[in-house]
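Title: Prediction job returns without error message
Component: structure pipeline
Severity: low
Priority: P3
Assignee: unassigned

Description:
Job completed but the reporter wants confirmation the result is attached to the right record. Sequence as submitted:
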Amino acid sequence: MLLLVLPGCASLVHQFPPSMPPATSGVDPALDAQTRLIESAYRAFVQERYPLASALFQRFVDSNPASPRLSEARWWLARSYEQRGDLPAALSAYRAVVGEAPRSTPLVDSYEFHALNRLEAFRRSLGPSSLLEHRQIALWLTSADWLTIPDVGLWIAQLADAGVTSLIVEAGSPSRETTQSGPIGVYFQTSKVPVVEDRFTVIVPAAHAKGMAVLASLNLHEPGWTTVNPEWDIAMANRTGQVFQPVGHVDVLHPEYQRLVGEVVQDLLRTDIDGLVVGARRAKGFAEEWSPTSRRMFEGLFGPSFDSHDQSVSPDAWRWVGWKTRAYLGFVARLAQQLRQTRQGFLVAVVVHEHAVFSPADALTEYGEDVLETKQRGLNLVVPPGSGMPKRSDEQEAGMETVRQRLAPTAGDERQLWLGMALGAADLSSQVTAVRATLATKVRQVGPHLLLMNGPAIP
């Protein structure tokens, strides 16, 4: 009997998937080795370590082409790819499972039967704008950009003609640190937070009509799109040891804040977007930030680690910052699973500073960014252009290649990597021309997704 872990069946995810009865140790060493390998892969799957699970299942498939458990391994390989958001690989693996079936109709509850059902579900749910088969050329637009576009449909058509395949659109008003005025709220319909105006009902259909995908960006660290509950506030100490509360920052680990974010992104999903891009922190100081809630959570796991109530950093600072980073990325990964239960193939990406590529220890303590942990969670990785990025396209391309090579040992599939390039357009009216000029160079070759930006390096 096959235990099927489908979206909507979250309670089954943490159960150990069944397998064929293990061989008696010593009777068949080869079969014993197969059992150990596939159970290691299962263990990684239920621990939500999907990149490792897919690597182990793939090793089983490659090493045991005649195994009676081949269809089983291929099924869970496909599930691992699907959970990490790599739909091209998942579709290929599901087709491989079906290819193992006889020409007659597969037995109900067989792996082949369920693989056919998954393929049919994808066929029904995935439209022409889904991020599946091709390298993406994305353009990131700030909320201020949209205010200056007189005809959204015409402008999107011009971008599509220039070669843009995806739009990244800010879903909410910016952080209070970047703007001191303007309304607070989001740009889609929801009853959970204030609504400035509903732009997504215009942007998404116009983009989809041109075969373009739309990804919404949302900053969780500095949520300028909602009024911050005082219970979510964080505290930190300045250089003199005085404790203060940074404006606009929240404790992303607070359960009530996470509940609100989950409800808001569910409403955002109803706009028919194709993905969510989680913005990076703008301000340094991640290691020094704390709140009563996060302190209680940390000490519940590791025991008392703070000498006083006002102490900003645990004496074991690396454990503190590592735990906070893993907890934050775990929350984003749970958001991704939640959204994929409703929308198969939904893409979730995390923005990191270029600093996270070249100075990972500093980026961990300053911004709470960990490239390897992000990839292990099955999340896409977005690296915008550095703030000092040169303007010439060939120099920018060389810089992007350096980033790509530096990430090569950890990045895995390049379809989950987005590298940024600055456009340098003087204003929005010249942006289409700048896009055409940029895409006329070598950057249209194969490789990671390309992200074009005309605003700040970290939006």
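Comment from assignee: result matches the submitted record. The mean pLDDT is 81.
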